[in-house]
Every structure is written in C-alpha cells, then in structure tokens.
Amino acid sequence: MLNFDWLQGVSPAAAKGVFLVLFVVIGLLVLMIPKAYIYQGLKHPRWYHNLKLWAWGVLLFIFVTYCAF
Known about the structure:
By secondary structure, the chain is mostly helical. 61% of the residues lie in helices and 0% in strands. The radius of gyration is 17 Å and the shape is elongated. The mean pLDDT is 91.
C-alpha cells in the first residue's frame, strides 16, 4: 500500500499553494504550444478552435475551485 506518513508535516496551506503553483505552470506550458500546431488542418480557423483558450478556461475553473475550498 501507499505510505504517505511523510506528508504529515506539510500544512494544508502549503499543499494548497503547491497545487495552485502547479496549475499556473501548466497554464504557462499551454501558452508555449505553437499556434500553427493548434490550427493545423483548418482552412478557416475561428477563435473557438484555439485549444489554448479552452485549456485556460478549464485551468481557471479548477484554480478558482481550489482557491475557494
């Protein structure tokens, strides 16, 4: 079984901060995706085809949920 006794010393606030920072890092990695890769194969790209916007929207929702609770 998994043994997470070593995490007993980590405060809930510190754990929450680590996860929030991870969401920000993931968001920055999403921004690094080239636009040509996102719109590959589309003849008439629209704003809603941009996967960066959708990924940022989901990350923002998760980030706000984690901040609230």
